[in-house]
Design a protein that fits this description.
Distance between the termini: 42 Å
Strand content: 15-25%
Number of helices: 10
Oligomer: single chain
Radius of gyration: 46 Å
Structural class: alpha+beta
Shape: rod-shaped
Order of helices and strands: HHEHHEEEHHHEHEEHEEHEE
Length: 394
Amino acid sequence: MIKPSRKLSLIYSGISILMMTVVGVVVYIVTSGSIQDIYYDYLDDKAELLAIEHFEKNTIDTTSYANVVRRLQNTIPTSKELFINLTDTSKANVLLHRYLDSKEIASLYNPDIETVHFQYGKEVGSALLYQDQTAAYGVLVMSANPYGARVQKVVRVWIVMLTVASLLLLVLVNRLGVVKVMKRIDMRYQREKMFVNNASHEINNPLTAIQGECEIALMKERPREELVLAINKIAAENERVIDVMRSLLQFTSQDTVDRDSLDRIDIEQFMRENFGCPGINITCESNFAVMIPYGLLKIAMRNIVSNAKKYSSHKPVEIKIGHNTVHVVDHGMGIDRSELKHIFEPFYRGARTRGIEGHGIGLSLAKQILDTYGARISIKSKPGQGSTFTVHFA
């Protein structure tokens, strides 16, 4: 299947090729026509000079005649030069029909038309009507126009070369431009897709909690104190949804890290506030602070810790804070070595996770967030012994 960027590039390139081909053909036709017109002008001059030399030799002065002869010597070579007496129209037309068609002959007899251009086999010709004191004559000159063919060939070669060079340049420019645009479009699409997937994953638990509180509150008549407590829980979960959505929207909409959005976070305090609960043991050997948006770090670490709890086989999860690192250790089922390289891929779930709820989004989202803000996550695991996720902060 052709990628959209390549398909769009091919369309633009095809349009460019078509336009350049049309321009090349038009230029060639116009150039060829101009060359033919120029050659006809030379033939017209030759026919006029021949008529003067042939019929006015004895009526013009010696200097003028010598000038005519000199000019004739510098004109283009011709294959045939004919002087046809038009007094006897029938005989004249028989001769003229060898070279001219009926329309061209009629034009020749027309005194308002100076010259008639015609094609005779591979040759071109010019005919004019000359009237002296005794009779009218048709003066015809013909030539093979060797210059025109050569010039046309040179023009044709240059047009082809320029067209090919222009097409290659256009294809390159179009391809680079289209690929760049398509990469931007694809990046935007992937961000929107990531936002939808991550948001649906992150708000699933709060929405489930809100639904549960609503169902419990509506099951029967309850004292005002219990309803207030339920409403407060719903409000807290609602606030959590809002925070998650705001943080994810900020994360997926930015092209670069916004330094103004960073929060200075004390790691030990952060981990104890958010994950200090039964079943999780937190120890700190060396505390440190990081610069990262609070809401996004909470999403990333929550996914790592909740993943450890999910696969710990009901054993305590350990969080160890060391020098610029946070280790999240579980003593559960572990991960096969062949699956470790896929563990942070979106929607990937290992073979041992069957029957355990999940969508394969949490760890992928955590890695995306941490990578964006200069942190790095790694994993060590052995089947049957558990896993250790280590977050290395810069």
